[in-house]
Amino acid sequence: MKTASIVSIGNEVLSGQTIDTNASYLSGELLAIGIPVVSVYAIGDDIDSIARAFCLAAGDGDIVLATGGLGPTDDDVTREALAKFLGSKLVFEEKLLRKIEDFFERRTVEMSPRNKVQAYIPVGSKALENNIGTAPGIMAQAQGKLIIALPGVPSEMKQMFEESVLERLKEVAGGQALAVRKLKCFGAGESSIAELLGPLMQRGRDPLINSTACHGVITLHIVATAGDEDAAKEMADEDEKLLLNMLGELVYGTGEQTLAQVVGQKLRQGNKTLAVAESCTGGILAALLTDVPGASDYFMLGWVTYSNSAKISELGVGAELIEKYGAVSEPVAVAMAEGARRKGGTDYAIAITGIAGPGGGTEQKPVGRVYISVVWAGRSETKGYFFSGDRDSIRLRAAQTALNILRLKLMI
Amino acid sequence: MKTASIVSIGNEVLSGQTIDTNASYLSGELLAIGIPVVSVYAIGDDIDSIARAFCLAAGDGDIVLATGGLGPTDDDVTREALAKFLGSKLVFEEKLLRKIEDFFERRTVEMSPRNKVQAYIPVGSKALENNIGTAPGIMAQAQGKLIIALPGVPSEMKQMFEESVLERLKEVAGGQALAVRKLKCFGAGESSIAELLGPLMQRGRDPLINSTACHGVITLHIVATAGDEDAAKEMADEDEKLLLNMLGELVYGTGEQTLAQVVGQKLRQGNKTLAVAESCTGGILAALLTDVPGASDYFMLGWVTYSNSAKISELGVGAELIEKYGAVSEPVAVAMAEGARRKGGTDYAIAITGIAGPGGGTEQKPVGRVYISVVWAGRSETKGYFFSGDRDSIRLRAAQTALNILRLKLMI
Fold this sequence. Notes:
The structure is a homodimer of 412-residue chains.
Chain A: E1 4-9, H1 11-14, H2 21-32, E2 37-43, H3 47-60, E3 63-67, H4 78-86, E4 90-92, H5 94-106, E5 120-122, E6 126-128, E7 137-142, E8 145-150, H6 154-173, E9 177-186, H7 190-197, E10 208-214, E11 217-226, H8 229-247, E12 251-254, H9 259-269, E13 274-278, H10 284-290, E14 299-305, H11 308-315, H12 319-325, H13 330-344, E15 348-354, E16 369-376, E17 379-386, H14 391-411
Parallel strand pairs in A: 1-2, 1-3, 3-8, 13-14, 13-15
Antiparallel strand pairs in A: 4-5, 6-7, 7-8, 9-11, 9-12, 10-11, 15-16, 16-17
Helix pairs in contact in A: 2-6, 3-4, 9-14
């Protein structure tokens, strides 16, 4: 099996300013074509450190993917470092300069003379086109390893990887096949799911099953390896079926699906519409729903009734309800949802009211207390929840939980 | 100057499933106490690879901070790898086991026998308490370097770092002082700001000034080093003043401030209120505003009028306006903002309408076209924008731009 090592270059990666998303993006892409990443080296903009990292990475993997340090400024020294590692020199390529000049011309921006440095690449290496930025990538071979340097700007890096690198790496990977499936779950913690799956999650098992958690969404990864693609796919499919059976409605989707996408699909299929009324989540539920292209087919409108008077004037919540039970209460959640459904003229409505903190909590209603109500055709389901974590987590968790409640309703 | 190297341990870091936020958190914390991180090594759960990474890291820095691999499962091998690197053996500590047992007892959960492995640490090293999880950390010294292993779960890692590691590292750092300032800018690109600042951003200058960009927000970092704290602070303050003068109203805040926080502060100071009406941003603007604790002081309510009929019924936008100019147009943006201000009874109102894509664009109104209107006391400012990027970027950029327009209004 071919393996890869990643080199992340740039002082910003080491100063805590930038989270290195390039490494995780490349790791995921490589794994998907059957090339596991075995190590990642992050170093600053220093020629010797970078050259040493190239050396270490080439020792670890068959492929070395570097990002960063290809820009036009003084601290962009990946070109020099790569030449040093390769034992070659930088050479000026007229053709590259013309492409960089074209880039500025198209934008009717004058090129700074210092961009000229980006037209230099190590002798014997190949430039990779950058269609959305000025930094060309570099591909070289050394010691039987394939070395690829990509820009550090994530959008440029991704586009170059997809357009000029991926196909080449698939060829390199040839001969081994890997099938990856992802199951997305909501409604149980990571440890409960691990408990449910028991020995299936044992290390060393093939397919390998592992889990990651993010704001209540548990993603189960099934990674099957085999001699050919069909065999790997079959193994992965079998495990996927097994997990779906074991986890039932805890699984809401596959791949990169979000809860909002799944809810949207079900609404669209049923030709149903939705309105939402939010207090503590302050627009997050609507934002999640409208994050899905084409959401206008089923999502009609939302209210962020942050103040009590907005709950009364916009959603028709009774002032006496708020007085008697408080804005964070089951009756107010129901009234908000009913008001949203009535005013929106939709099939379904969701309302959320709660205390996201850090202030505003009391002994009876602590920070994290949230009421969620879903109403449809004269019926409703309303429940109180307690979410732990900070303001962000509580808000996101509440919005996701609301989507999950509607998902389960729409499954019936 | 003392330096540090970070070792991130875990297959999940290499599979692209988990973005390594631990490394960037630790890098930032270390830099803030004057210990720059010079390298990061990420490797999988393999004893030899981890031991080698410890070795490389100890070669790079005076301090080695490792995260991950301290859990109770078979693939948690950081303990063994650290013992191997130190040339010592693992020893069972009764006291540690009792703490782990206590942890389960407090939660009235039965301890799994496999948690017992967490009570082993290398001979001669010191355990670090974990108050919110079961994995104790480990601190050891070798070859004149300080080696610290922390859990991989971010919340446990952070708490342990703050409670048991930070003070010790401050002692180690002693003798050098560092002052860091951050200026947050909006309204110009990273390269334009670099152009404006010119030689100030030169590499090697002290204070060092560099920039990072995220969804239109440019963060300028000023890092000053000196023999003592006062001198470093003075240098950083001087540069901060210089930059503020040069960049003027491009700078919206300092530190970790968001545009929504700054807008909120200004509204609160002026005792003003705000309502928002969103179409393409679908709740993001409201979510950003309500992300700020206490936003209920000035943020009254928001509408996500995704459908045309919602724009008409909820905000009183004239149907003929939509017919004549389209929902994505300047007149409709103004009408939405005016409707929101009137119905919300607020001092200010913002409205956003646009095409976030990927579908829905036309030649006249391509994906990325967004109209933003801000109205107040019988006056309004409305403008058409064109944002590039994907749906996510366009939506976030539109919402941030709207906040920036209001910020500039509130400065007058």
